[in-house]
Structures are given as structure tokens and as C-alpha cells.
Design a protein that fits this description.
Layout (H helix, E strand, L loop, with lengths): L23 H10 L21 H9 L1 E3 L6 H4 L6 E3 L1 E9 L24 H14 L2 E10 L11 H14 L3 E4 L5 H11 L2 E4 H12 L3 H15 L33 H36 L4 E6 L5 H9 L16 E6 L5 E6 L9 H6 L1 H8 L3 E7 L5 H12 L10 E6 L6 H10 L4 E2 L8 H11 L5 E7 L4 H10 L1 E8 L2 E8 L1 H15 L2
Subunit structure: Monomer. Associates with the 50S ribosomal subunit.
Keywords: Cytoplasm, GTP-binding, Magnesium, Metal-binding, Nucleotide-binding
Subcellular location: Cytoplasm
């Protein structure tokens, strides 16, 4: 690994006790030491693949093998086996900004106490490395710089950009990934300096979504987000520009040299806007089907529970444990994108649905939020929100804040009753769990891998489900056993008694079923 010679400020001798000094070299060393796994919390084989049916999907993803040392020259491409692509070697770039630095640790605080709510540069860069590996690249090195704000021209500053170019050349990297969103001018300036492709965090996340989207709606949503990101970043390439002048003015070429009146880049922009308009119409046409499914559940008075949370927090694993859904589980970020709905029952037999939604991430691209709005509306329409948090993550509180930031952009999502579930407790240490219990007093501790705490989770979900509103005490004729069955499935039965004229029920049911029960009783009373 190249030595990074960025100076780091040190605290004065009379300053209050702080977090131990974190030099950029130390941060980069810790980030690179964890390459090869999606996140530190999943290191050590936390996922065992025994509770899902995703073997074929994982095999298909692994089939797109990436080969180190493969170039794009024609003589190499002709010898490549089917479905092999070149393994990109990347260098990560991050900034240690003031708002990301950990707060001072109180005097006498426990060594394992939670850091400040803001996610620091180390955790952010580690997450970027996990995103790069999920996209199918190899992290070669990293560079981090302490600054008060990004440089408006080159993001890093001219001196550090030249140092980055030397690092890229030394390790043989062909891509630079920046932990932030670059403006078009910053991206061009960095590419001109380092001489290789430069992408930012948003482009990396969009690439992962494009790889993992499977359903027709998911593919359309991802393509729309990609086009929204690409539109302001189109570049003209000189010779591809069409002439806009004609006659003798057109460089003296005369008749036949008049251009179409639009440059190539303008034609591309117009085509992108037309494609975006078509995708929006297609996505809008898909919404009624999802709304119809939600409406049928509502008409049947079936409560719904939405599972949301940070990516790789274990939402799909938890869904498989609770419902035997068989959703694919993989130690990767954004492994599953398409929502899945499954049926579940409470201990007393009440039916409700569990919905697994797309995972969130810090600084989730706004284009994705807009494109996946119809999917995220599943959260706003739920009766209970199960917010899954990775308890073994270095900064779980920032994950909670990131998820709530995304939910705030969905009307009504923050109004849904929330149950925080701290997953992967088998990997978290006792001090961290004690601190989390203090900061999140209503949270439930579970482990989707071992099954610990699942009984408590089911009980808490059952408590939070909406209860039927109307109390009835009716005798239902034996000929209307269908109403008795619905009362058992959708209501809360207190007493069941079989009398001469029918089944006497004392129960809590919804208003519609209460009206049908009263009507059935009235019909049996008439001569």
C-alpha cells in the first residue's frame, strides 16, 4: 500500500480527553484490512445459506466471473471465455470533513461506548469499499484527506489530485471511486489529472442496482434513475458534433455541408428525455396492479407489517425466519431489490402480511428514491414498521438516522408505528449491546442466524398490530359458518359457545364484519 503523507492535526496537551488520534494512514489501513467481506459485521461467515432458496440466483451472479489481469485489447478479448469480464482495480478517495469526525469521548467512558451519531470518515470509506466489492471490483488502495470542505475544482485540491495520480499509476488501477457526489466539472478535472475513469458514490450505487434488479418494474425504476443521473453529465466529443451553419459559412464547404441544426449532445439529451418520459409512463401503468393488491388486503382487513432498514442489516434473513419465505440471502449490499410479501399469523391465529422492502444506505441517491417511490410506498401503507438495524455495525445509530432520512421523503412513512429490531446480536459485544439498550430502550434484540429473540419479536409485533374496533356478542346460525371462520381469522375471539340456535361469539371484529354478523343474527331471528 502506498504511503499517504497527509498531515494530521493533534490535540493540545491541555485539551479534554478525546478519541485516540486517527491519522489518514490508520484509517486506510483498517479499511483495506477488511476487504473481501461486505461489512465487518458479516465477517467470519455470519450467513450460512440454510434458510433461503437463492442458490440458483447466487450461482447466476457468480457466473459473471471477473478475471484479474484481463485487458480490453482485441487479442485478449478474443480469448476470453463466455461471461468473463475484466476485474476492475479501483482506488478509493474520501474526505474527512469536520461534521464527520467523532465527538469527544466523555471522561471515564467505556472503551466500547458508541461514537457520535455522525458517521465518521472511516466507516464511510469502509462502506464504499463494500459497495465497490459488491459491484465486482478489487480495492487496491485508498486515499483520505482532512479538509474543511471539498475543493470546488478537483474535489481534493490540485496537490492531492497529483498524489492520487501517482498512486493510481503505482498500483495499476483503472478506476477511481470518490466517496461523495461529484459535479460534472469536478469529475472532468479529476479524470484529466489522474488519467483514468472517475466515478462517484451515486454512480456506484446505481451500477449495483442495475446488476441486481430482476423484475420488470425494478429494471424500469433503475433505468429511470440512471438516465436522471446521466442527463446533466453528458459530454461532447468534438468530432461527434454536427455543424449548425450551412452554405459558404460552414468552413467554406458550400452546398451539402449544412448540419441538422442540433449538436450530437443535444440529440442525446432529447433522446434521454424521451426515454425518461416513456419509463415514467410505464412505471405509472404498473402502479395500479400494486395498488389493487394492497386494496384487496385492506378490504379483507388484513394488517400489514413492512420490514425496512439499512442494506445488509439482515432484513431478508429475518423475513425467512419469520415466514419461511425462501428469499435469497447474500453477504452483499443491496442483494435483494424487489419487494416480497408473505403471510404470517399471530399466536392467537390472526393473519397479517410481512413485506420485505429495498435496503437503504447513507446518501441514497435522490434519483433512486424518486424512481422507487411506488415501492417505498409499501412502508407508508403499513400498519407497523419493523426497522432492522445491524447491532454489530461500527455505527448503528447513523444507520437509523440514514433510514429515517429516506423515509422522511415518503409522505406518511414516519407516521407508521416503528419497532426497532437490533439484529446480529450474536456478533456484537456486551458493552455495545448495553449502550444500544440505553439509547434505544424499546428495541428488540434478535439474531436471525441463531433464532435468538424471535419469540420476543413475534410477541411485540402482535402487540403493535391494530386491534379490531367493534365488540360483538352474537349467535351466528350454523348455516353461516363462513362468518365464524372469518371472525377467527380476522378478529380476536374471547368466547365461543355452541347453543341450539347457532354459535355464540364474543369477539372484537372490524366494522364491516360486525355488520355482517348482526345481519346474520337478525335473519335467524325472523320467522
Amino acid at each position: 500500500m502506498n504511503e499517504i503523507r497527509t498531515p494530521d492535526s493533534t490535540a493540545s496537551a491541555d485539551a479534554a480527553p478525546t478519541v485516540p488520534a486517527r491519522t489518514p494512514e490508520d484509517i486506510v489501513a483498517r479499511v483495506l484490512s477488511r476487504t473481501g467481506t461486505a461489512l465487518a459485521s458479516t465477517d467470519g461467515g455470519h450467513w450460512d445459506g440454510q434458510h433461503d432458496d437463492g442458490a440458483l440466483e447466487r450461482e447466476a451472479r457468480a457466473g459473471l466471473r471477473r478475471v484479474a489481469g484481463l485487458s480490453t485489447e482485441l487479442e485478449d478479448v478474443s480469448e476470453v471465455e463466455y461471461r468473463q469480464v475484466r476485474l476492475e482495480k479501483v482506488v478509493l478517495v474520501g474526505l474527512d470533513l469536520p461534521h464527520q469526525r467523532p465527538a469527544r469521548r466523555p471522561t471515564g467512558a467505556a472503551p466500547g461506548a458508541l461514537p457520535g451519531d455522525a458517521q465518521d470518515a472511516e466507516t464511510s470509506l469502509r462502506e464504499l469499499a463494500a459497495l465497490a466489492e459488491t459491484a465486482g471490483s478489487q480495492v487496491m488502495d485508498a486515499l483520505i484527506q482532512r479538509r474543511d470542505h471539498p475543493d470546488p475544482a478537483t474535489y481534493l485540491g490540485s496537490g492531492k489530485a497529483r498524489e492520487l495520480a501517482e498512486m493510481v499509476a503505482a498500483v495499476g488501477a483503472d478506476t477511481v471511486i470518490v466517496d461523495g457526489e461529484l459535479t460534472p466539472s469536478q469529475r472532468r478535472a479529476m479524470e484529466d489529472t489522474v488519467g483514468v475513469k472517475v466515478v462517484d458514490r451515486t454512480a456506484l450505487i446505481l451500477d449495483i442496482f442495475a446488476q441486481h434488479a430482476k423484475s420488470r418494474e425494478g429494471k424500469a425504476q433503475v433505468e429511470l434513475a440512471q438516465l436522471e443521473y446521466l442527463l446533466p453529465r453528458l459530454r461532447g466529443w468534438g468530432e461527434s458534433m454536427s455543424r449548425q451553419a450551412g452554405g459558404r459559412v460552414a468552413a467554406g464547404q458550400g452546398i451539402g455541408s449544412r448540419g441538422p441544426g442540433e449538436t450530437k449532445i443535444e440529440l442525446d439529451r432529447r433522446r434521454i428525455r424521451e426515454r425518461m418520459a416513456k419509463l415514467r409512463r410505464e412505471i405509472k401503468a404498473m402502479e395500479p396492479a400494486r395498488a389493487t393488491k394492497r386494496g384487496s388486503r385492506r378490504r379483507g382487513s388484513i394488517p400489514s407489517v413492512a420490514i425496512a432498514g439499512y442494506t445488509n442489516a439482515g432484513k431478508s434473513s429475518l423475513m425467512n425466519r419469520l415466514t419461511d419465505a425462501g428469499i435469497m440471502v447474500q453477504d452483499a449490499l443491496f442483494a435483494t431489490l424487489d419487494p416480497t410479501v408473505r403471510r404470517a399469523e399471530t399466536a392467537d391465529g390472526r393473519v397479517y402480511t410481512l413485506t420485505d422492502t429495498v435496503g437503504f444506505v447513507r446518501s441514497l441517491p435522490h434519483e433512486l428514491i424518486e424512481a422507487f417511490r411506488s415501492t417505498l410506498e409499501e412502508v407508508a401503507g403499513a400498519d407497523v414498521l419493523v426497522h432492522v438495524v445491524d447491532a454489530a455495525h461500527p455505527d448503528p445509530l447513523s444507520q437509523i438516522a440514514a433510514v429515517r432520512t429516506v423515509l422522511a421523503e415518503i409522505p406518511g412513512a414516519l407516521d407508521v408505528p416503528e419497532l426497532i429490531v437490533l439484529n446480529k446480536t450474536d456478533l456484537a459485544d456486551a458493552v455495545t449491546l448495553a449502550a444500544l439498550r440505553t439509547r434505544l430502550p424499546g428495541a428488540v434484540m434478535v439474531s436471525a442466524r441463531t433464532g435468538e429473540g424471535l419469540g420476543d419479536l413475534r410477541a411485540r409485533i402482535e402487540e403493535m398490530l391494530p386491534r379490531p374496533e367493534v365488540v360483538v356478542d352474537v349467535v351466528v346460525p350454523y348455516s353461516r359458518g363462513d362468518l365464524v371462520s372469518r371472525a377467527h381469522a380476522d378478529g380476536e375471539i374471547e368466547t365461543v359457545e355452541y347453543v341450539e340456535s347457532g354459535t355464540r361469539l364474543v369477539a372484537r371484529v372490524d366494522p364491516a364484519l360486525a355488520a355482517e354478523l348482526q345481519a346474520a343474527r337478525g335473519a335467524s331471528d325472523r320467522p
